[in-house]
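Morning!

As promised:
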Amino acid sequence: MESASSEPIAAEPKLVLRHKGPTRLWHWLNALLLYVLFASGLGIFNAHPRLYWGHYGANLDRPWLVLERFGSWITLPAHYNLAMSRHWHLSAAPIFAFALLFYMVWSLFGGHLARDLAFRRDELAPRHVWQDIKDHVRLRFPTGEAALRYNMLQKASYIGVIFVALPILILTGLTMSPGMNAAWPWLVDLFGGRQSARSIHFITAFMLVAFFLVHMLMVVLAGPLNEIRSMISGRYRVPEARR
Amino acid sequence: MSLILDRRTLVLGAAATLAGCDRLAKNETVREALFSAGNFHKWAQRSLMARDALAREFRPDQISPFFRPNGTANPNTAEYKALWRNGFADWRLHVTGLVGRPLSLSLAQLHALPHREQITRHDCVEGWSAIGKWRGVPLKPILDAARLRDGARYIVFHCADDMGGGRGYYESIDLEDAFHPQTILAFALNDEPLRVANGAPLRLRVERQLGYKQAKYLMKIEAVASLDGIGGGKGGYWEDRAGYDWYAGI
């Protein structure tokens, strides 16, 4: 038997199991579904590229945003076809919603939330938060044991995405359905009307794009191969501790 | 290794993924799977909502200042123009198909039936919404008077507008929506007789579904057992032509 305290040999980088199976599976399913949902969503948006607040809104009402149609390089399908965009969007949406639900339940009861995502009391101290922000701006990434824990800003963004942004996207999506409005009238009222819900759906989708861009940047800066491998096989090479 | 994530890479990546998705959608199995999502949504919504769950009704002060007309603004056929010229006095609504007693109803007869008034939100598949006050005759007493036969499963609405190539606009709903209390044949919008742009003299309101279901310029209501023999067989003009979902509750 090996002893419990297995000191890694300095020459050999330490490999750990960074992400569990459900996290990896959900991550890549999301990468696919969110792409389909975003691209087909822009295709749907192109049918009426205006956004309003309130219950109603059509061409002669006052929009808060009027855009040109999104280009064919980003819409699904790559030409204007509202019916096909809707088929893509409405096929991907229920899979996405139930996957999120399962992931939330797994995170809650499987310990992921308590172990990896919940804030520790000392992390919320203003000095700690400020230090985290400074470290991020200076691109000074944690090393050694600290690299195995999410930092405060990471936790905040993952919690924000999983428990706020994604549910808002799903719920505002549901409120655009006249059938769901009859089934759950309180839901559309919660968002201040169908056109408000449509606006919130759009805004949240673009906040998620912002998250995606920062996420990509961070992966690239933190060492893309190691990061991507940890999300495929789970194996992660712990960065050597800074002296 | 260098990973350059500029706009060009993003555009190329997106274009490549798109091309992949578009090719996938041409595959018959994938296409069928994508189209079948409509069945899931219909099943899920019907499971969640009570059979007679009502669409939200609004207060008079919430009505849109202008109710946007869409689709055909005027059928402009010789037949329709003749009907319009004398105030639809010669217009008749025919109720046919799998019924025990076919009906032919004039506008005056419809006006004499009990009315329902509802201020509801019209949601276009394109994304916009307009709130209007509709007055009309519930479909249920008309179907009851015509005595639906046992085999009847769908109600088809045939319209006066010719969409080109002799194909008329038509739509269909199942009996669950046909007998819903808010499903009415409307002859007035915002306290005025229905204007031509909004579907004069009579249009369908089926409030738990999208705008393309709200057939305008109604001429004939037909009870059928199956949608197969009608138009392109998909249950509606846009369903046949563009591939819209037959169930438009989402």
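The radius of gyration of chain B is 21 Å.

Hope this helps with the figure draft.
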